Inverse folding.
């Protein structure tokens, strides 16, 4: 009998573990190995250079830029997306009329939810190509076209969007324009998530609050929001990962994949640039390992900050 | 939750006095305030809904214009005459048709295998105790945090070397992409299904074993059907995730010996956006985007409840 179990376990695990080892684990380990060499990627010549690549990271101007751009997205993408999603969920669930059973959702909230979720099912590539057309720097673009029509933008001096490296609030404008897309595409999903969490809060808590004389704003800020803490922190962790992965937008939309003039470089685009354009695979792997360490530290930090006792009801 | 109807309150509809108990009318918002707030909610929600729908609609409608109309009247949502030819041009000359075929070929295999292998591994890890169990579980888990860019270079090299001896597993091969998709989807699938299989009752499993079922029969005929809700969630997650995958195909579906590339839809769309830009074939580009977008949107609208709960369940686990 024991023998049968062992054979069954091995049989079930062999294929998945094998595939995973070959296509995921092995490349990761190799990357860590290459990061200690000066391998160019195309030749077979590679020399062990120890930690040189890692030391070079600290003096690389491009990496420093990419690091701060990643931090920018890491702060702004979750912040704006969650704020907007919470606001929409609040309007959706609290905006309706009050009655004996408490405060109801607005009329048509089901339809709103369906629509707001649209961007989530579209691929990042479709979104990027679409926004490329929306962001066109002439009258043919959706935003410039509308603004020119109502006379807010001069046809000779259109908004240049992702071609604009000028800093706004200390951050290149192109990054702000990419942020708009990230928030646009993420808000609906997190609104649905928060909405579901709001609806799972038992009604009697609200009834008690209303009996005690709390209005809708009080109930929201004193009851709903604190009870949503868990969901919001999960959302924060997920959005953090998304923020680290803005590469699709940078790759498709910005000039020379990280431009203009390196104004929108992030870790991933620097890896791409070093590996495939400058032919420095060893160095690119070192950046990737640094990114992985950064990600893991961040995940650990986030889990630590957001860990709290769960409220069960 | 009792007697209230869903009709919006008319302006002259005074609230019945017995509905507003004393304390609330004293402290809480007044009826007029509530109405203003309700109106504000609708206004803002409607504005956001337009901001979501309008760009999508604009893309679809631009796909039905002539090129000169796209340039002359870029903003109008109503084409002068409907140019269905744009779609046929994008489908054949823009190769959207080929992209679709490749995507469907790959996804059919990869989603099926991801689900099968993922649940098998998750099941064994969740319900059988053996040395190395934790190690394998954490190995899968660690894949969730590591960025794919880290593996990009060696992964390409590994696939390339594989292709030298076994061309059907080399770059630009459907089977290779299927296996890569499966491997990269396993981490989350195993993680998700692991927590699902743990919750299934022991009694039924024991009963089946007592009745003489083998372990694999127990899995396929008893446990897998019981895990159906979880399978649906993770299935939707994987279909969307793999459909949207662009980095792995861009990296791996490269032509090495000059043969035509077997691009999938996301990868093809990126190249289409570059090529049609050179040719100034804007309507063709819009048609391509529309064709990549509409099938997913339609499937979503039909199954919206399952998709929403499936994807949100994926996050809150």
């Amino acid at each position: 009998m024991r023998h049968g179990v062992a054979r069954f376990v091995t049989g079930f695990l062999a294929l998945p573990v094998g595939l995973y080892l070959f296509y995921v684990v092995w490349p990761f380990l190799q990357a860590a190995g290459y990061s200690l060499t000066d391998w160019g990627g195309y030749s077979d010549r590679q020399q062990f250079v120890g930690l040189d690549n890692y030391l070079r990271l600290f003096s690389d101007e491009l990496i420093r830029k990419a690091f701060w751009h990643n931090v920018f997205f890491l702060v702004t993408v979750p912040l704006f997306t969650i704020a907007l999603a919470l606001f929409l969920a609040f309007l959706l669930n609290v905006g309706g009329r009050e009655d004996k059973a408490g405060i109801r959702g607005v009329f048509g909230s089901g339809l709103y939810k369906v629509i707001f979720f649209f961007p989530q099912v579209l691929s990042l590539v479709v979104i990027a190509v679409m926004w490329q057309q929306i962001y066109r720097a002439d009258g043919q673009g959706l935003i410039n076209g509308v603004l020119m029509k109502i006379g807010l933008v001069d046809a000779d001096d259109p908004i240049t969007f992702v071609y604009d490296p000028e800093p706004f609030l200390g951050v290149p404008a192109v990054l702000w324009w990419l942020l708009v897309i990230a928030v646009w595409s993420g808000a609906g999903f997190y609104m649905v998530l928060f909405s579901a969490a709001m609806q799972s809060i038992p009604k009697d808590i609200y009834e008690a609050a209303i009996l005690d004389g709390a209005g809708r704003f009080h109930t929201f800020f004193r009851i709903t929001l604190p009870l949503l803490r868990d969901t919001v922190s999960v959302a924060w962790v997920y959005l953090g990962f998304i923020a680290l992965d803005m590469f699709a937008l940078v790759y498709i939309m910005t000039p020379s994949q990280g431009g203009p003039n390196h104004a929108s470089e992030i870790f991933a685009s620097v890896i791409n640039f070093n590996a495939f354009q400058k032919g420095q695979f060893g160095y690119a792997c070192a950046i990737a390992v640094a990114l992985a360490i950064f990600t893991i530290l961040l995940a650990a930090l986030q889990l630590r900050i957001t860990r709290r006792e769960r409220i069960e009801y | 939750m009792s007697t209230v109807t869903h009709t919006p309150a008319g302006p002259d509809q005074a609230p019945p006095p017995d509905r507003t108990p004393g304390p609330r009318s004293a402290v809480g918002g007044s009826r007029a305030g509530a109405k203003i707030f309700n109106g504000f909610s609708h206004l803002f929600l409607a504005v956001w809904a337009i901001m979501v729908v309008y760009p999508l609609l604009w893309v679809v409608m631009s796909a039905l214009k002539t090129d000169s109309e796209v340039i002359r009247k870029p903003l109008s949502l109503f084409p002068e005459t409907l140019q269905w030819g744009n779609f046929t041009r994008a489908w054949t000359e823009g190769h959207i048709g080929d992209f679709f075929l490749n995507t469907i070929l790959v996804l059919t295999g990869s989603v099926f295998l991801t689900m099968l292998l993922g649940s098998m591994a998750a099941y064994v890890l969740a319900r059988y105790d053996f040395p190395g169990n934790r190690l394998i579980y954490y190995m899968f888990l660690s894949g969730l945090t590591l960025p794919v860019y880290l593996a990009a270079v060696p992964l390409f090299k590994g696939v390339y070397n594989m292709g030298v001896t076994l061309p059907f597993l080399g770059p630009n091969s459907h089977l290779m992409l299927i296996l890569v998709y499966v491997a990269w989807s396993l981490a989350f699938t195993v993680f998700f299904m692991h927590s699902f299989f743990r919750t299934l009752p022991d009694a039924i499993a024991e009963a089946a074993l007592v009745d003489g079922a083998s372990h694999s029969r127990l899995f396929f005929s008893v446990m897998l059907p019981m895990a159906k809700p979880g399978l649906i969630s993770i299935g939707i997650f994987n279909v969307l995730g793999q459909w949207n995958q662009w980095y792995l195909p861009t990296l791996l579906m490269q032509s090495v010996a000059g043969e035509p590339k077997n691009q999938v839809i996301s990868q093809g769309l990126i190249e289409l956006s570059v090529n049609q830009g050179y040719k100034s074939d804007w309507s063709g580009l819009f048609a391509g985007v529309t064709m990549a977008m509409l099938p997913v949107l339609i499937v979503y609208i039909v199954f919206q409840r399952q998709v929403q709960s499936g994807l949100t369940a994926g996050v809150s686990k």
Notes: The CA atoms of residues 258 and 265 of chain A lie 4 Å apart. The mean pLDDT of chain A is 81.
